[in-house]
């Protein structure tokens, strides 16, 4: 069967462009960051409250650590993905080409901007 599954407008590409993929990248990074941060918060909360008896204050302290770390990691990875995607789209539109150089340049610019804020 050689027929296409979907009806595309005349001149449309069969693949998604960098702009369409940006939304998936940003959302995926936010969700990954939230999951990683929640696990890290659970580990830290468990470690910090190991001397406390099992009670409501201990539960609340662990949950606070989980939500705090989850939000921190989600914001960090989401911001990095947003920068990377924005640089990628701008470079692609500026150059008018879709190749690996755009990806390398977007990653380099994202890393440079992230490190320029003085974070270690």
TrEMBL record:
The chain crosses the membrane at residues 21-42, 72-91. Pfam families: Tim17. It comes from the Eukaryota. It is a multi-pass membrane protein. The keyword Transport does not apply. One of its GO terms (biological process) is protein import into mitochondrial matrix. One of its GO terms (cellular component) is TIM23 mitochondrial import inner membrane translocase complex. InterPro entries: Tim23-like (IPR045238). Keywords: Membrane, Transmembrane, Transmembrane helix. It is found in: Membrane. This is TIM23 translocase. It comes from Serilophus lunatus (silver-breasted broadbill). The lineage of its organism: Eukaryota, Metazoa, Chordata, Craniata, Vertebrata.
């Amino acid at each position: 069967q050689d027929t296409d599954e979907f009806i595309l407008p005349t001149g449309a590409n069969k693949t998604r462009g960098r702009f369409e993929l940006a939304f998936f990248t940003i959302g995926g990074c936010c969700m990954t960051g939230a999951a990683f941060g929640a696990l890290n918060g659970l580990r830290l909360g468990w470690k910090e409250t190991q001397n406390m008896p099992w009670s409501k204050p201990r539960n609340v302290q662990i949950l606070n650590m989980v939500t705090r770390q989850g939000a921190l990691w989600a914001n960090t990875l989401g911001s990095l993905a947003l920068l990377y995607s924005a640089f990628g789209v701008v470079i692609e539109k500026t150059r008018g080409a879709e190749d690996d150089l755009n990806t390398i340049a977007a990653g380099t610019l994202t890393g440079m901007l992230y490190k320029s804020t003085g974070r270690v």
